[in-house]
Design brief:
Strand content: 5-15%
Largest sheet: 4 strands, mixed
Number of strands: 4
Order of helices and strands: HEHHHHHHHHHEEEHHHHHHHHH
Distance between the termini: 47 Å
Shape: globular
Length: 367
């Protein structure tokens, strides 16, 4: 580990110790309100646990069962029907303040507005959620379970090097968000997580990670720990760095549609339906492999690369090579944003050299 990274880790520890009431890993009542509402919709048919689910989830689902006619659940189903799924609803919650008011703390991002189909329905949903929380006295329900949930997080917190991971990300990308928030979601499944980002009134970005429960336990909620948690944290917080950097050049991404074509079906199954979301995820997964070199044992990097290739991210090794070039030339690219045009150039070169038939097929769309 470099001296610079050690110093950054110390700074991150100091930063997090003074951050506003943000525990290393916490369960958010606002996210649990959302999860309980979604448990009453068709969301749970695709994003539910393998069996009955953990005992807390079952209690949460039972708690909201009498409110199926409430506007919050009606709107949740309407949004689900429109495809507002996967990371969309959790990202929406990250824009909101705490219960009971559930005020709009951060203006909705264009991404969330587009996913939901407009700002108005998001506001209607926010107000309906606050109303349901008050009508059901949800905060009392959550308060009873809060000590239990804190105990469930203890195994994941054991040895969790959150500050080191955050310092590595800040060093690699060349800047530090205004805050990092890690939220465990015991009623969202199965395993893995979501990444989200919000922007405050001064234009500063705040990064969120939502960690899903593994989905197989029917007793206590179970979450990743050790290397699995740290690697997942690299991945999900990485979205706050990678997504805005790549999305600053929408036309460059659009010109790379042929790269998505060979894996379009397997990507659609994972909700990466556009070339922009595919590229975001591909770069993050390559970054995750690079991070493994510094943070974990050597075999972890290979495991990450091979696992991502099995999931259709066939550019992983190629993008890793580009990120190695970035690391070796930080004098030319102080921040990842400076490197993105070069990265797009290299992806375009790969496309010309390996995807000629696809380029011809898509040619009429790219002119």
């Amino acid at each position: 580990m470099t001296r610079k990274l050690i110093c950054l880790a110390i700074l991150m520890i100091l930063f997090n110790s003074s951050a506003a009431a943000d525990a290393p890993l916490r369960v958010s009542p606002e996210m649990e309100l959302l999860a309980g509402v979604l448990s009453q919709t068709s969301w749970i048919e695709k994003r539910g646990p393998e069996g009955l689910g953990n005992e807390y989830f079952r209690a949460l689902q039972d708690f909201f069962a009498p409110y199926k006619e409430h506007d919050a659940i009606r709107l949740a189903q309407e949004l689900t029907n429109k495809g507002f799924a996967y990371d969309g609803p959790p990202a929406f919650i990250c824009h909101l303040g705490s219960l009971p008011d559930l005020d709009l703390a951060y203006e909705y991002s264009e991404y969330v507005i587009k996913r939901a189909g407009g700002r108005e329905i998001l506001e209607d949903f926010r107000l309906a959620l606050a109303d349901l929380a008050a009508e059901s006295n949800f905060l009392s329900f959550f308060a009873k379970w809060e000590p239990y949930l804190a105990d469930c997080l203890a195994p994941s917190l054991q040895g969790f090097r959150r500050e080191l991971v955050e310092a590595w990300l800040s060093d690699f990308f060349g800047w530090t968000p205004a805050g990092f928030h890690l939220i465990a979601a015991p009623s969202m499944f199965p395993g893995g997580g979501y990444g989200a980002a919000v922007t405050d009134s001064e234009g500063n970005e705040i990064a969120f990670q939502i960690i899903r429960e593994n989905g197989s336990s029917e007793t206590v909620p179970e979450f990743p720990s050790g290397v699995s948690l740290e690697s997942l944290t690299c991945h999900e917080l990485g979205h706050a760095f990678v997504n805005p950097s790549l999305q600053a050049y929408p036309e460059r991404a659009n010109q790379l549609k042929p790269l998505l074509w060979p894996v379009r079906e397997v990507m659609a199954e994972q909700a990466y339906t556009t070339v922009a979301t595919f590229l975001n995820e591909q770069v993050i997964r390559a970054m995750e492999a690079v991070a493994a070199r510094d943070l974990f044992l050597p075999e972890v990097e290979l495991l990450i690369v091979e696992n991502n290739e099995r999931w259709g991210f066939y550019l992983t090794r190629y993008v890793v090579e580009q990120l190695e070039y970035y690391q070796a030339n930080r004098d030319l690219y102080p921040q990842f944003t400076d490197f993105v045009p070069y990265l797009y150039d290299q992806l375009a070169l790969y496309q010309r050299e390996h995807s000629t038939w696809q380029s011809r097929f898509f040619g009429k769309f790219l002119r």
